[in-house]
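Lab notes, practical 5.
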Amino acid sequence: MLYDLFLTFTKYCPKVMIKKLNQHIAIIEESIDPDESIKPTIIVFLTVAVSLTVCRYFGQFTDFDRFFVKGTDWKLSLNDKVFYGKLWWAFIVFIAYVVIPLIVVKVFKLSKIKDLGLSGKGFFKHLPWYLLMILPMLIIIWFVSKDNSFQQQYPFFKHEYWGHTGRFVCWELVYAFQFFCVEFFFRGFLLQIPKRKIGVIAVFVMIIPYCMIHYQKPLLETTGAIFGGTILGFMAIRTNSIYGGVIIHIFVAIAMDLASLYRSGVI
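Output from the prediction step:
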């Protein structure tokens, strides 16, 4: 049944998606403002560089231990260090991907906040397309989850460090919120402002750093980020909404965690 659905998807969906993509490009190009200054786009690109640097040098899992535990009398178990390290990483993602961009937008008056992909109108109209994108991903996840390397990679918060199930549930909620931050940064801030000046090119500029943040992950996931991120980029610009990408990210991430836990016999 699942295999038949997958074959149907691969036969018909690419043609439909290419047609929709061409429609999106045409509409996006019409939205370019010839009087728009290049200054907002430059400010956005520089801010992205700063935010990614903050994540890299202050948002690693081990940085919580480096900043708050080493050199102090604070004694934590290994489970606590791992758990708090994950929370610290998510906190820095929030600061770098949401707080810093919002401050920059306000200080330099780059855009209205709601115009950074936070509109829900286009999301509901295109919801069936987002749900359609989830189906092949679930099929791929189910088959790929058999691989030992997949089970070693996911979930990020390993079972042996949970201590109790409540911590895993807490982590999954934080993990889900982190995807909102990612979508706001890449498909909101980095797309919605530059598109006014450079149009569809903004999507391909966005996909470069978005691909690079996946480099520590398996090749299949990084490759998928290129194609998936491009599609989500077009849809985010077309709908002025990041919520479709948020839902897809959360749904797929939780599915990957649960599939890995199931394959490894934890659940």
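Observations recorded by the TA: The radius of gyration is 20 Å. The mean pLDDT is 87.
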